[in-house]
Specification:
The complex is a heterodimer of chains A (96) and B (519). Chain A has 96 residues and is α/β, with parallel strands linked by helices. Chain A is built from 2 helices and 4 strands; from the N terminus they run ββαβαβ. In chain B, the strands form 8 sheets. Chain B has a 5-stranded mixed sheet with strand order 5-4-3-7-8. The longest helix of chain B is centred in the N-terminal third of the chain and has 17 residues. The chains are: A alpha/beta (96), B alpha+beta (519).
Chain lengths: 96, 519
Amino acid sequence: MTDPELVILDPTDERVPVRRALAARPSALEGTVGLLDISKPRGDVLIERLEERLRERVPGLAIVRYRKPTFTRPAPQDLRRQIAEECGFVIEALAD
Amino acid sequence: MSVPSFSLRDSEGEDRTFPGERPALLCFVHRDCPTCLLSLPVIEAAHVGFGSRMDVWVIAQDQDGGAKLREEHTLSVPVLDDSELEISFASEIETVPTVIEFGPGGEENRRFVGFSATDWKRLFSDAAAATQLEAEEPDWSTFPELRPGCGSRSVEPGIVERLQARSEGSPLRARRIEVGSSVDPFEFMFEQGLCDGLPVVPPTPERVLRMLEGSRRDPQEVIAEVAPNYAPLTVEKVAINAVMAGCRPEYLPVVLAGVEAICAPEFNLHGVLATTFFATPVLLVNGPVRQRIGMNSGINCLGQGNRANSTIGRAVQLIVRNVGGGRPGGVDRATLGQPGKLSMCFAEHEERSNWEPFHVERGFAAEASTVTAYAGGAPTGFMDQRARDARTLATSYGLSLAAVSHPKQYSLGEILVVVPPEHVDTFARDGWTKAQVREQIQSASERPVRELARDPQCAEGLPEAVVRRLGADRCIPKFRSADDIALVVAGGEAGKFGAYFQGWIGSGGSAMTTREIGE
């Protein structure tokens, strides 16, 4: 910029957010689907229904249930890693 | 133009010191520059040919210290790490590659930039004469005659100012932003998304330096990682945001302790920010610092008008926004929010309290100064103008608190209650301790399960199964534990009005966190 009148210092973290490419989307619903309950009240109601519908519509699909210890914090890293290792898909249910 | 003496680590972990006793050839490069990559085989050939009698070094400006360069190109030439760019800056390197040749006494004989076959050929023949070595020259026919270089990373915008400040001994490292003379700096800061909805003071280097004088801490000390982005927070960044908020330098230690408190894991700032509920950091200051910086613990202390109260809380919120990246509509998902999200900071009126100060209750020395962070909603007022004894007054507290969140929502977690001087006097007259007040609050607010059950008129409340399990006559306390009721004294002399800041969720949410204020 020419003719600067005023210099100010950047109050932000100056970090450029990391952009990650999305994982390749599978072309078909097969293998293992993880159902993650975030531990909000009645999340289990939604998860139950989802599992029921998935079993009806895609027989043969493996379904594994997971649960966050609390909805107030991000899922622990170990849980995230476990889901990534064990599942091709994950559905996270939010409820109240 | 000269190259300062330096010691840099090469990719083998060995420290290389310049000047040494041998002639030297320093080649400044970075991996993103095609001309640098083009020059690498020539540099390698020079090292293979003359390396036994001459220090031929690549000085890499890449952030990885040149690790990738070595990985991707088969190199035996030492690759030195100048990722900090200090040597590039001090050597006034403007273009890469820059090739500098030195005699055995450290005198600079030759310097050229970009790729120049003529210069390289001359360099090879001079070096052969000087070292008495027969070097195998590259096949020059495969190289262009001339290829311009790229900009050195040490002169990129933002970096050059930082390096300049460092070399001049300035404590400032933050990126400098030039605001053109035709631009209104206040409007500029709004446009950049740096404000909380109100104008901020432009954080000029002069103001930030003055602010930093308020603390003895190293401006580059990382004091916390701020959610939701978990960005490292330096004292300098705190000072910049404190300037913007309108703080005076003597407030800086309070802001620092406040940020440390909200960034403690048990405070769970990430959750406090992300919730749709009302919670936000409510900051309570105790100890001698209150008088020293002129905080208000008296008339209208939860309101406007006192610079320290208003700007300390604001600085902490600006840090969450600017450094942590927590903004409304982004990670901040509050349904309604509340005005305390601009700033909520007040001091305890310790001198007007009949009880020990809040920080002493929490295990700190009376002469220590502290900030306590609590995830609270907006203050809600309640009144009792008739009680003349401690029990009936505490009963009114309990009845008022029974409505927190919802009259049928029970077993809550922390609550912060502000007791005004007139109520303090009533409790003091009967010699009531805080524990007695808490117990009376619990007993006045407890309700039998039957009253807390869901019914056709109200869907909130205990479900039938729970009612059956607990029994309809069992009494449930409003707060899980009497210890969750924090009593703090503040307010003006006149008025029998107290206030509470409703808490967030019970366990697993946020825990009140106190940090001592340093210097």
